[in-house]
Amino acid sequence: MHMFTSAALGMARRTWVRVAAAVAVALGAGLLVAGNAAPAQAAPPEVISRWNNHRVHTGSLLNLNNFTGFSGKYTITAKTHAHNTGNSTINYTCTLSAEGGADTDFTEVTLGPGAKESIVVHVVHDFTGTGMLAFGCTKPAGTATVNLNQIKLTAIKVNTLDNQPF
């Protein structure tokens, strides 16, 4: 069995602290020499938002908007509040689509006479082609008018995407 005196333990601790400090200085100097004085930071998100507080949907297809100029990775959400102004029940669908259907989401609701429903669609997409995003709604031809209120579309550019089924 080895017996260490408190003086020997104190000397060992001081030696360890000096070695750790020397290693830290050497690593820091190596990082500076390599040109990496600070760790790389992620780019801040870019937010694009569009809105329209009221659109009237009379025909069977209402193209709310085609947005262009997207490049890179985005998470995109669109929402609206649909109000059936007629006396018959209709099926109503809104779709959000990136680059011609590469990534698409839709929400279908049944709107009774005078009914109001919130509709939300969401996609994530890495825009490498056309940079186009389409948002629109459909209803059966000849059915009542649908008022769309508080239409909001928000696209947030992100550094990375991990889009896979669970």
TrEMBL record:
<feature type="signal peptide">
    <location>
        <begin position="1"/>
        <end position="42"/>
    </location>
</feature>
<dbReference type="InterPro" id="IPR006311">
    <property type="entry name" value="TAT_signal"/>
</dbReference>
<keyword id="KW-0732">Signal</keyword>
<protein>
    <submittedName>
        <fullName>Uncharacterized protein</fullName>
    </submittedName>
</protein>
